[in-house]
């Protein structure tokens, strides 16, 4: 089955699992899978956006699971559930990123980032893969990043986890040839909404022409088409493709200082935004007390 150009077949009682389904790439892929006839198990911490997906797919069986995949205990309960049901496809999209010098960032949050980006993806894949191989049909999409090709100071934990995801997934792809199970790495660069409000635009948004970006919706279609063709890696959008080439072929000794400077600016921007939110929160709190 691995040499045809179709996704694993949807059927009653069998599910496509999508993590990180409350926003971004995960949400877009979940909607696209539902439109293609797949029943879904959606996983994220926030329920409301997943309920929105279910409302858009009234003919599909959509199960919603509020799980913090960075938490080992919560993740363990969900893994136990997965092992008892039929999963014909999994999209491991859940992930977070931080910016700044590793030794200056809160360790607990960095550890949670590692658990979510790397450990959870590893364990979820391991939970569903034996059943797929036994049935000789299945599909795995793991969301890595073109950043996983690079050395990026001020983004060390994210880059390290995505490097693991990239190589792990591509290695699995070749292991699974001939088993009927397809495995594709989604390695995006910057992806965003088709329309982004001005107040939410970052420095990168402002200096990058709109035509270079890819949208979440286009990314979802490209990804599922790549999985159907059992491509080892899909890199959607012009900017992502440029970053992919840059990361693979430019020596790290040349690229690292440039990327470190860029991500240092991003870290400063994120810190400023957080400080503004904290100040606004304190201001609102004081207003509440005085009233």
Automatic annotation (TrEMBL):
Cross-referenced InterPro entries: NAD(P)-bd_dom_sf (IPR036291), SDR_fam (IPR002347), VLCFA-Steroid_DH (IPR051019)
Entry GO MF terms: oxidoreductase activity
Keyword Oxidoreductase: yes
Oxidoreductase listed as a keyword: yes
Keywords: Oxidoreductase
Protein family according to the UniProt entry: Belongs to the short-chain dehydrogenases/reductases (SDR) family.
Protein name, UniProt field: Short-chain dehydrogenase
